[in-house]
Amino acid sequence: MPMRMILFLLAVFVSAAAPMDIERKPISFLGTFEGGMIDSLVYGVKGEGYSNQVINRLGVWVDDEAVVNGRLRFRLGLGGMYFYAFPTELNFIQTEQRMFIFGISQASLDYSFGDPGNPYLKMTLGQFPLKYNQDARNLGEYLFRSSAYPLTLQTGGYIIADDARAGLLGVDLENHAWNGRMENHILFTSETNRYPLYDMSLTYLGSLHLGRALEIGGGISFDRVLPARPSFTTPRNYYYFHFAGDSIADIHDGSRKVFVPAGDYASLDTAGGAYSGSAIAQDTTAVKSLSKQYYTYQSTKLMGRLALDLKALFGLEGKAGLGEEDLRIFSEVALLGVKNYPVYFTKRIDRMPVMAGINLPAFGAADILCLQAEYLRNPYANDWSTQLTGNTPLPIGYAADHWDTDSVGHKDDWRWSVFAKKKFPFGLTVVLQVASDHLRLIDLNYNLTTRTVLTDPKRQFYYLTRLTWGF
Question: Is 246 exposed, middle or buried (0-12, 13-18, 19+ CB in 10 A)?
Answer without folding.
Answer: middle
